[in-house]
Known about the structure:
This protein has 366 residues and is α/β, with parallel strands linked by helices. It has 14 helices and 13 strands.
Amino acid sequence: MTSVWELANPQLRDLAVYEPGKPIEETARELGVDPGTIVKLASNENPLGPSPKALQRMRAALENSHLYPDGSGFYLRKAIAAKLTVAPENVVLGNGSNEVIEFLGHAFLNPGDDVITCQYAFIVYKLLATAFNVRTIETPSPDYRQNLDATLDAVTSKTRIIFIPNPNNPTGTLISQCAIDGFMSRVPDSIIVVFDEAYFEFLDDPPDTLQFIRDGRNVVALRTFSKIHGLAGLRIGYAVASPQLIEVLHKTRQPFNVNSIAQVGAIAALDDEAHLRETKRVIDEGRHYLQEQFAEMQIPFVPAAANFVMVNVSDACAVFQKLLQRKIIVRPLKGYGLPEWVRISVGTMDENKQLIAALSEVICAR
Length: 366
């Protein structure tokens, strides 16, 4: 009998499947405990949960869940555009910003092309390239920081897309406006430059990449409602780009790709400034506390700009398992070529203190 793998596209044979942070429910089943006792600090989620305004609007929207959603996302795109001072024609919605990354692959990549990203970048870029039978060039990241000069040096005639996560996940490092401006002054116009800004709202002084879009450059800014807005379970994100580029991306989008509950929740979350401010306050306070504790414990870490910290614990898989036994989930980074490191999301202060107490036990027991 013919193996299905003989029928499948050959690049899929060795394609690694993205492994998300370990779910709370799975951990609770394995440990035989109540899910409410598990502290999950693995997926950079909002520790305060969704916006109360979003919850109220989504509950009301359930009454119409028998109806198909607005396929164009008219009201959400209008709300995003107003918030960012762009036009609705500059916005495309995705089932998470990950889906927009897939749109880019369908729109601009062909076998034999190249994409460029940095070492230790969000692994989905590489998975996308492999799925489209495209080569990924990873440029060195000294001290876990992206080097845009190295990115420019890696450009070839086959380069189609450059992915620049800022801040980067999992390292948490940030590229300055000055570095971005210098890069954009030299990058060829024939290349699509994608700034992945999933953690944009956590920054005190975020770089302005929308200026390049307003200037008509081939630039895409990715944003999401999964992080500071607390809507990760709804899978809702978007991209901002020139109307011409957005028109191309719409051609790759499935009808009704963003559900009606997500659209309503996102509109309300976008308008809930109080929830955004409180989330940022909790994250800023918690990140400062964690980094202060890591320094006191003499545990190496990369100073972070977002809602997580990358920490060197010598043997990430072992520490992950030991913390799991203490009902705390973190993210080991072996899949990123960082076997000594874990990524720890900032939680509530109570959760942060539980993490530090458990990590102290684990470190002392070695």
